[in-house]
């Protein structure tokens, strides 16, 4: 069945847990005994409605008890499609979770409390959606029951977000007024909002097109295979995952960063020979020429090769409590290659309210900025807007080995 990945984001108390619980409940993804337990808990608290937020809170409690449940990702399905939800925490200190959770999603559902309207986290999550190239943003304006299902209030928020949309260059934004608590416009249309002519959230998710990872062939080498036996003494294969594009037998390719050229002799998958491979297949490639290729090198299309160099400019989301200062050293992980890297300069830091660039000499937790990076080794890369796989990287602290930043390359 068709699969759609989407991320849910929003500020604290926007009702994200309730919305996710509603989607799980209405799609039948919740075991009956768990529903009964939540109904009993809701009755004890004096609520006349089932507290669906307990569905996600229950999963968190199970995780804390050591039960193996991945609470970062939730799964459900309908007759039309399967779904994976990446649940990003609402607290500002966990903004970095959205960066990691949104790396391969098709859409972002950003919640807004109809009473509060657009807040700082709405802007931050929207900006990240823009930087990460998420093709579809659904602004779910929640708690409409608490503003008397007001069409005027809905239109006020839509008008304000339209200004944000144009400045952030978000291409496809869908606005839906919802009440997650009662399920209005989540899986069914609301009788209290007849003025809304659009589809409920679940119907929108069922019909959204997928994020398209098209582009020229990019094959980072993960492992060089050289069997140590007389029978296979001349075998040399390169194993890895095709990040984008298509490779075919006989196709001319370029080896980066050396710039050497060769042709594909064979493509193998699980011991079987293929005429062609397409992303995201993991295959082993043999070349016609005996060229020195190592882990971290990249086999690319000769017709449209990647960029190569030791210096580039990138958008950076800083994820650590310590400050980022110019001349700081890190380990940079890009596809299958690691290299010592230095942040040469901080070109600008974005003001999340005005979206203007500010001149700053450091970056703090959750700051998003533009930096210039220099690496010890030559890397082969693309701009993120062209290829998100080969245009992204992470920075790792050398002493703690923790990930401190995620970056999107904007220019070589």
Can you give keywords for this protein?
eight-stranded antiparallel beta sheet, 412 residues, 7 helices, Elongation Factor Tu (Ef-tu), domain 3, Rossmann fold, alpha+beta, single chain, six-stranded mixed beta sheet
Question: Topology of this structure?
Answer:
Layout: E1 3-10, H1 16-26, H2 32-44, H3 53-64, E2 73-77, E3 82-87, H4 96-101, E4 107-113, H5 120-131, E5 136-142, H6 151-168, E6 172-177, H7 201-207, E7 218-220, E8 223-225, E9 237-241, E10 246-248, E11 252-256, E12 260-269, E13 272-274, E14 276-278, E15 282-287, E16 298-301, E17 307-318, E18 329-334, E19 337-350, E20 357-358, E21 368-381, E22 392-396, E23 403-411
Parallel strand pairs: 1-3, 1-4, 4-5, 5-6
Antiparallel strand pairs: 2-3, 7-16, 8-9, 9-15, 10-14, 11-12, 11-16, 12-13, 12-15, 17-21, 17-23, 18-19, 18-22, 19-20, 19-21, 22-23
Helix pairs in contact: 1-3
User: Rounded to an integer, what's the Rg over CA atoms?
Assistant: 24 Å
CATH-defined architecture of the largest domain = 3-Layer(aba) Sandwich
Level-1 CATH class name of the largest domain: Alpha Beta
CATH superfamily of the largest domain: P-loop containing nucleotide triphosphate hydrolases
* Total DSSP helices: 7
Count of β-strands:
23
CATH topology of the largest domain: Rossmann fold
Q: Please tell me what the overall shape is.
A: globular
**Domain module tally:** 3
Residue share in helix: 10-25%
User: Uncertain spans, ≥5 residues at pLDDT below 50?
Assistant: 65-71
Instruction: Give the amount of beta strand, in percent.
Output: 35-45%
N-to-C span:
40 Å
Summarize the main sheet.
Answer: 8 strands, antiparallel
């Amino acid at each position: 069945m068709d699969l759609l990945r989407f991320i849910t984001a929003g500020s604290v108390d926007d009702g994200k847990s309730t919305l996710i619980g509603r989607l799980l409940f209405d799609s039948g993804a919740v075991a009956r005994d768990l529903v009964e337990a939540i109904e009993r808990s809701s009755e004890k608290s004096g609520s006349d409605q089932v507290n669906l937020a307990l569905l996600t809170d229950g999963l968190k409690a199970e995780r804390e008890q050591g039960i193996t449940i991945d609470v970062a990702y939730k799964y459900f399905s309908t007759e039309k499609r399967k779904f994976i939800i990446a649940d990003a925490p609402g607290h500002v200190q966990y903004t970095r979770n959205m960066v990691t959770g949104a790396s391969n999603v098709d859409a972002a559902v950003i919640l807004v409390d109809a009473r509060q309207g657009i807040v700082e986290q709405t802007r931050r999550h929207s900006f990240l959606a823009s930087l990460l190239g998420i093709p579809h943003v659904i602004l779910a304006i929640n708690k409409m029951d608490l503003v008397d299902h007001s069409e005027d209030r809905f239109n006020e928020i839509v008008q304000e977000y339209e200004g944000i949309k144009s400045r952030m260059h978000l291409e496809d934004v869908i606005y839906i007024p919802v009440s997650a608590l009662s399920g209005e416009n989540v899986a069914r249309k609301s009788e209290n909002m007849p003025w809304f002519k659009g589809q409920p959230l679940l119907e929108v998710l069922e019909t959204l097109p997928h994020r398209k990872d098209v582009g020229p062939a990019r094959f980072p080498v993960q492992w060089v295979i050289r069997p140590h036996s007389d029978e296979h003494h001349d075998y040399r294969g390169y194993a890895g995952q095709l990040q984008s594009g298509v490779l075919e037998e006989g196709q001319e390719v370029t080896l980066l960063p050396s710039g050497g050229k060769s042709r594909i002799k064979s493509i193998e998958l699980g011991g079987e020979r293929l005429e062609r491979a397409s992303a995201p297949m993991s295959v082993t490639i043999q070349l016609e020429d005996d060229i020195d290729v190592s882990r971290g090198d990249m086999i690319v299309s000769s017709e449209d090769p990647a960029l190569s160099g030791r210096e580039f400019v990138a958008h950076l989301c800083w994820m650590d409590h310590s400050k980022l200062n110019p001349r700081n050293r890190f380990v940079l992980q890009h596809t299958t290659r690691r290299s010592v890297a230095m942040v040469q300069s901080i070109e600008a830091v974005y003001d999340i309210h005005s979206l203007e660039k500010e001149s700053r000499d450091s970056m703090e937790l959750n700051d998003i900025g533009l930096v210039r990076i220099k690496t010890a080794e030559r890397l082969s890369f693309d701009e993120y807007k062209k290829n998100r796989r080969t245009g992204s990287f992470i920075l790792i602290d050398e002493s703690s080995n923790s990930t401190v930043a995620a970056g999107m390359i904007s220019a070589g």
